[in-house]
């Protein structure tokens, strides 16, 4: 008997996160372990200029995955993008 019950929505969300992670790794040739270093909140909305940029909405919670050269950081939003 299974004592754990998972909602279908969490299973679907997990599959979507895996798909987004695979796309991220292929797009940016990122082979490091993905771990959350910090959580940040966007202060203002910023539309994406390029396909590789993540559009951000003011107040949105982001997981910081990696800090690269300069002021750039690699983040993930709540949808796993």
Describe the 3D structure.
- This protein has 81 residues and is of the alpha+beta class.
- It has one domain: SH3 Domains (SH3 type barrels).
- Helix content is 26%, strand content 19%.
- It has a three-stranded antiparallel sheet with strand order 1-2-3, with no helix packed on it.
- The N and C termini lie far apart (35 Å).
- This is FYB2 protein.
- One of its GO terms (biological process) is integrin-mediated signaling pathway.
- Residues 24-81 form the Helically-extended SH3 domain.
Uncertain segments are: none
What's the CATH architecture? Roll
What's the number of structural domains? 1
Number of DSSP helices? 1
Radius of gyration: 15 Å
Biggest sheet architecture? 3 strands, antiparallel
Structural class: alpha+beta
Could you list some keywords that capture this structure?
1 helix; SH3 type barrels; globular; three-stranded antiparallel sheet; alpha+beta; 81 residues
